[in-house]
Amino acid sequence: MRAALLTAPNQIVLTEVPTPAAGSGEIVLRVRAATICGTDLRILRGKKTRGVRFPSVIGHEFAGEVVEVGKGVQEFKAGDRVSVDPVIPCHHCAYCQNGMENVCANRTAIGYEFDGAFAEYVRIPATAVAGGHVYKIGDGIAWEQAALAEPLGCCINGQEHARIGLGDVVVILGAGPIGLMHLQLARAAGARQIIVSEPLAHRREMAVKLGADRAVDPHEEDLQAVVKGITGGLGADAVIVAIGIPALANQALALVRKGGRVNLFAGFSAGDMPPMDVNLIHYNEIVVTGTSALTRRHYEKALRLIEAGVVKVKELVSHRFPLEQIHEAFQAAEGGLGIKVAIQP
Ligand SMILES: [Zn+2]
Ligand SMILES: [Zn+2]
């Protein structure tokens, strides 16, 4: 099969590799859509290294058609349309025992320790099949929509950490795919005002189209003044940092009211140590949380919200490329000209 092989940092080679076969308990999918994540870009640029192998196939947001089932697999058959939660926990470490399988001490993931979906076929490990990580999807949604259940599930995890709810004033920093998903989730959760901060005009337009009350260009407007204006000087109830710019973590602290919540959703580059006004956290009793990956519960919820049309993800896909144009695809994703980039192998 053809696969986009990550051979070294900054190097992806489209090449022929052996087509995976389904071993006992495994299934093999014909990949129909795989979307490029910000994390894939960080992996490509050598800024994320945990679980990354060379050579390997990356790509962890995907959906496809079952083409082969291994011995002992009962619940799937060739032709099934499925999408996959790629984060595979061990189910027995202290974190898994406490409902935090997303940060499992022995966590592995498809697109990291296991070859991912920027290829014609992807093998789903037996632990993922048996663990309930493969979800059947209805005919009503497109492959790329199902692929986006993964990032949406991560966003649901973040929304829970930020405790977004009825009547909240929410600020979202960054209107890339992740920010635009957070926006829709916050709206669905009953947020009263949602302010999105984003320097790119086309992304601000999309934010307004998807329900933002205000889309601020942080280079042109004073975001803090806008937020104070809307909240009678108090500040937002919650801020979600949806882009991994270290300085934003500190800015976010100044945007929330006393007792407000800041969720550091986006990952930062390894070694980033931004200065932080720790007294803002101290005196204002700010709750700062992080979010890493997702659990099966988040994935399933995301998929069902997409199927129900509560969260619009098709609108986020701005570019589609065949596998042959993997380089153009990564360029489009990195350039920020579009929003979400999908590969259709
Ligand atoms: Zn992702
Ligand atoms: Zn575990």
Task: Write up this protein.
This protein is α/β, with parallel strands linked by helices. It is built from 12 helices and 17 strands. It has helices at 38-44, 94-97, 126-130, 143-147, 149-162, 177-188, 201-209, 223-230, 246-253, 278-284, 296-307, 326-335; strands at 2-8, 11-16, 27-35, 61-69, 81-84, 87-88, 108-109, 121-124, 134-136, 169-173, 193-197, 214-216, 236-241, 256-264, 287-290, 317-322, 340-344. Strands 3, 4, 5, 8, 9, 16 and 17 form a 7-stranded mixed β-sheet that branches. A 6-stranded parallel β-sheet has the order 12-11-10-13-14-15, with helices on both faces. It has a two-stranded antiparallel ribbon with strand order 1-2. Helix 5 (149-162) crosses helix 6 and helix 5 crosses helix 11. It is globular. One zinc ion binds at residues 89-90, 93, 95-96, 104-106.
Question: What is the element layout, followed by pairings?
Answer:
Layout (H helix, E strand, L loop, with lengths): L1 E7 L2 E6 L10 E9 L2 H7 L16 E9 L11 E4 L2 E2 L5 H4 L10 E2 L11 E4 L1 H5 L3 E3 L6 H5 L1 H14 L6 E5 L3 H12 L4 E5 L3 H9 L4 E3 L6 H8 L5 E6 L4 H8 L2 E9 L13 H7 L2 E4 L5 H12 L9 E6 L3 H10 L4 E5 L1
Parallel strand pairs: 10-11, 10-13, 11-12, 13-14, 14-15, 16-17
Antiparallel strand pairs: 1-2, 3-4, 3-8, 3-17, 4-5, 5-9, 6-7
Helix pairs in contact: 5-6, 5-11
The structure holds zinc ion (ZN) (2 copies).
One zinc ion binds next to α5.
In short:
This is Alcohol dehydrogenase. This protein has 345 residues and is an alpha/beta fold.
